[in-house]
Amino acid sequence: MRPMTATMQSFGFTWTAPDGTRRASAVAYDRVSADRQRRELETAGARDINEVTVKPGELPKLEG
Q1: Residue 31's closest CA among 5, 57, 58, 11?
Q2: Is residue 14 a contact partner of residue 22, using CB atoms and an 8 Å limit?
Q3: Among 10, 12, 16, 35, which is least packed by CB within 10 angstroms?
């Protein structure tokens, strides 16, 4: 029997801060941490929160 391998996914965010400034996360998150970070952004009043899947060593880029 072959052992199952887990596929690790990493996530980052782009969002608009309450003052209107576009932001991008400077770290990548695992699923549990990404869910927690989304809640923190929402609580802080962030808008246009976009979660993106990133590769190891990659961070989300702001569009435009």
Answers
A1: 11
A2: yes
A3: 35
Domain layout of the chain by residue ranges? 11-53
Q: Across-strand partners of 52?
A: 12
Q: Distances from the Cα of 39 to the Cαs of 7, 43, 55, 60, in angstroms?
A: 24, 6, 22, 18
Q: Which residue has the tokens 């596929």?
A: 7
List, for residues 24-33, the tens digit of each pLDDT value: 999 999 999 9
Instruction: For 4-60, give the DSSP string.
Output: P-PPP-EEEEEEE-TTS-EEE-SS-B-HHHHHHHHHHHHHTT-EEEEEEEE-TT---
